[in-house]
Amino acid sequence: RAEFSILFFRGGSLVDNSTYSFKNAVGEDNEVLEEFLSQFYGGNRLVPKEIIVPLKIERIKEIGSWLSEKQGYKVRLHSPERGKKLKELELANRN
Predict the structure, then answer these.
(1) What is the pLDDT of residues 15-54, one digit of tens each?
(2) Of 54, 51, 49, 52, the residue nearest 29 (C-alpha)
(3) Does the pLDDT at position 95 exceed 70?
């Protein structure tokens, strides 16, 4: 089973959130996260300029490049280890 919480921040404030649950997720956590990112942002969804993820994923550069090319602007995909972004990630994990 896998659950993903997407928190939307604008101007440093939380403006929206969504949770997605998958009962039959198969694979290592980082693989499931890679697949979720590909599916979630694969359609016509607007992609933010920054995406914070809770795990270091193997294909982080490839996914970031793909999203940047798809959107026509630089998309930063990363897993923070300290600071404000880590606190935002911890907030997402609590929700």
Answers:
(1) 998 889 988 888 888 899 999 999 999 888 889 999 989 8
(2) 54
(3) no
Paired strand residues for 7: 17
Give me the long-range contacts of 1-7 (CB less than 8 A, separation at least 24): 1/25, 2/29, 2/32, 2/36, 4/33, 4/36, 4/40, 5/92, 5/93, 5/95, 6/40, 6/92, 7/88, 7/91, 7/92, 7/95
Q: Is the pLDDT of residue 91 over 80?
A: no
Q: Domain residues of the chain, as ranges?
A: 2-94
User: Residues with Cβ < 8 Å from 54, sequence gap 6 or more?
Assistant: 33, 79, 89, 92, 93
